[in-house]
């Protein structure tokens, strides 16, 4: 596994390479490859307003941040009495997002169902997502080098049409938590993906923007990892293997 120390900004250290050279390169989806457009807060505000709910975008942003923490898969499944708290499926994700929307927008009983459905559908439409600018050059480079490519994401089946629309030409292998049955950072997620890929753990490189899900946990399972810092997230300055540009990073650690 490659090592590095405090790589921030756009300056990259010399001689940092994956060892052994991986056969598969997986990327996280949201925050690494795609981002919502309009923003989450703007989308919630627009949908809420169309049903008579008026909330400041800043309030929505704060409530959403709180809701994501309160209704993490772990917390949501624990509160439902599920023993394996990192297990998930399509129905669990649907119910969890209903709880998140309820906390963020506080709809009336009459508003709740149509508001949720509108938001659920909104984030399932490819036109409401965009690629980060460094994604296409990165995938093209990796494809030219002969790597198997895929996404490993905590998402649900809505991700498939999004990826097909935005990245269909790359024929990415998709490992979606609601289909795998576990969310990152569960060891079972990485084990299941490794089994489906039919390679050794150290032949997989995962690139993502979440330290626990995309670096710490998969590294413990034997995967190689690369940490991407989009927008220089607060508190990340002490994290090693950190890059802010996907194309530069893979070119550095996976030289031709």
From TrEMBL:
Lineage, opening ranks: Bacteria, Pseudomonadati, Planctomycetota, Planctomycetia, Pirellulales
Domain of life: Bacteria
Coiled-coil ranges from the UniProt annotation: none
Name of this chain's protein: Haloacid dehalogenase
């Amino acid at each position: 596994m490659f090592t590095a120390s405090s790589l921030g900004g756009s300056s990259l250290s010399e001689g940092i390479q994956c060892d052994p050279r991986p056969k598969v390169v997986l990327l996280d989806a949201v925050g690494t490859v795609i981002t919502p457009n309009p923003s989450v807060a703007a989308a919630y505000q627009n949908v809420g307003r169309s049903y008579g709910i008026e909330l400041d975008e800043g309030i929505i942003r704060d409530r959403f941040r709180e809701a994501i923490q309160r209704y993490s898969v772990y917390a949501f499944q624990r509160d439902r009495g599920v023993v394996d708290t990192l297990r998930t499926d399509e129905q669990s994700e649907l119910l969890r997002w209903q709880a998140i929307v309820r906390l963020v927008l506080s709809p009336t009983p009459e508003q709740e169902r149509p508001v949720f459905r509108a938001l659920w559908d909104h984030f399932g439409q490819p036109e409401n997502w965009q690629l980060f600018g460094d994604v296409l050059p990165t995938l093209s480079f990796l494809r030219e080098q002969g790597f198997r490519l895929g996404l490993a994401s905590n998402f649900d089946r809505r991700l498939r049409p999004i990826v097909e629309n935005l990245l269909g030409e790359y024929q990415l292998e998709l490992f979606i938590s609601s289909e795998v049955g576990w969310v990152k950072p569960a060891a079972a997620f990485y084990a299941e993906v490794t089994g489906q890929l039919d390679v050794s753990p150290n032949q997989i490189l995962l690139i993502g923007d979440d330290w626990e899900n995309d670096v710490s946990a998969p590294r413990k399972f034997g995967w190689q990892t690369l940490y991407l810092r989009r927008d220089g997230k607060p508190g990340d300055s002490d994290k090693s293997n950190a890059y802010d540009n996907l194309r530069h990073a893979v070119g550095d650690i996976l030289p031709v």
